[in-house]
Amino acid sequence: MKKRVFSGIQPTGNIHIGNYLGAIRHWVAAQGEFENIFSIVDLHAITIPQNPKILKTKIREVSALLFAAGIDPKQSAVFVQSNVTAHTEMAWILNCFIPMGWMSGMTQFKEKSEKQKKEVSVGLFDYPALMAADILLYKTDFVPVGHDQKQHVELTRDVAQRFNSIYGDTFKFPEPIINEIGARIMGLDNPIKKMSKSEALPIHAINLLDSADDIRSKIMKATTDSDTEIVFDKNRKGIYNLLVIYEQFTSFKRADIETRFEGKGYADFKKELADVIIEGLRHLQSRYLELIIDPSYVDSLLKDGASRVRPIAEKTLNEVKTKIGIG
Ligand code: TYM
User: Fold this and answer.
1) Which protein residue's CA is at the shortest distance from atom 7 of ligand 1?
2) 146 CA to middle of ligand 1, Å?
3) CA of 234 to the centre of ligand 1 (A)
């Protein structure tokens, strides 16, 4: 029996190379090894205000991007979270087992709520309960994510443990899979801030659907420093981040990269980095364009994905309801 993988992505903003290098690429690479479930988490998206038309379009866009990136619908079930209602039911139940104190400690909530100020919703606070429901419903073994989701997966394990200690063995304890390199790609404008979909400044992120010209111009403008040496030095955050992106797209060894750019300037390096990204995204972009002209095909894959996972989710939900004496 293959171990099961579950992961999710929000259909908001533009999907960028941080999402790709930190998550999607690993989902694709390990597909054959696992039984895979990937969700377009639209219920998480509505924890902050969304325009309904844009949200609907984004759900399809992100789904098409996953398939374009190499997610194979035969090996992986891809579905839209709100199409499997067990997620919301399970999230409610888990809410009743998560102490307020655990939630208050979530760093992502603190960051996101700062931006939202007084408009911040209860849903945003409760976001990790829904994420725990996503993972626990499928008795997931592994959760491949970027670094920013680690704390949420830890909370998921904690609530699973709490539930099991009261009602007996029910949930599996999921393990996060976080590839150290590439799990935290930083913003191009500001390398001390994580690359994020919600950042407004256009040069902040390279989006997966950016044109070659946009990629070139963003990379050329990326923040570096006044030094000249092109070496992997974590203290020089701007150039380090760009080198990590180069490393991730080429899979070259660090020492070889440093030798390659010895004596060269930042402009030379940036030109080559832009070429490497453009080349690295070329196939994904052309496949995306093929897929998106036939939305009904993408929709049919999502429908199929939901019908494959729904019985698994419902089985766990029913088991949990029986244990707690409801339903
Ligand atoms: P989301 O949509 O913000 O991001 C999707 C994936 O991309 C990773 N990621 C990054 N990796 C490296 N560098 C970055 N700058 C970067 N930015 C984002 C994220 O870590 C993530 O793996 N809460 C999740 C979605 C979710 C989920 C789940 C994930 C909902 N339910 C269950 C796993 C399991 C989120 O908002 O991801």
Assistant:
1) 19
2) 6
3) 23
- 128 ligand 1 Cβ < 6 A: no
pLDDT in tens, 234-275: 999 999 999 999 999 999 999 999 999 999 999 999 999 999
Question: What tokens appear for 286 in the block?
Answer: 């052309």
The predicted pLDDT at position 180 comes to 85
Is 194 known to be catalytic?
Answer: yes
Q: Return the best residue to mutate from 5, 6, 9 for the ligand 1 pocket (most ligand atoms within 8 A of CB).
A: 9
| Mean pLDDT score, 179-203 | 93
Closest ligand 1 atom number to CA of residue 147: 20
Q: Are 21 and 280 in contact (CB under 8 A)?
A: no
Q: What is the pTM of this model?
A: 0.97
Give strand ranges (E) for 50-179: 76-80, 142-144, 175-177
CA 179–ligand 1 middle distance (angstroms) = 13
197 catalytically annotated:
yes
E runs forming strands in 32-153? 35-40, 76-80, 142-144
- CA of 245 from ligand 1 middle (Å) equals 18
Beta partners for residue 85, in sequence order? none
150 in active site:
no
Q: Which residue has the tokens 């190499």?
A: 70
Q: Which atom of ligand 1 is nearest to the CA of 183?
A: 12
Structure-block tokens of residue 178: 């976080």
pLDDT, position 116: 74
Cα 130 from Cα 108, distance rounded (Å): 14
User: What structural domains does the chain harbor?
Assistant: 4-183+295-324 (3.40.50.620), 212-289 (1.10.240.10)
The tens digit of pLDDT for each residue in 92-123 reads 999 999 999 999 989 988 888 887 777 899 99
121-130 confidence digits (pLDDT tens): 999 999 999 9
**Residue listed under structure tokens 């919301």:** 88
pLDDT tens by residue, 266-316: 999 999 999 999 999 999 999 999 999 999 999 999 999 999 999 999 999
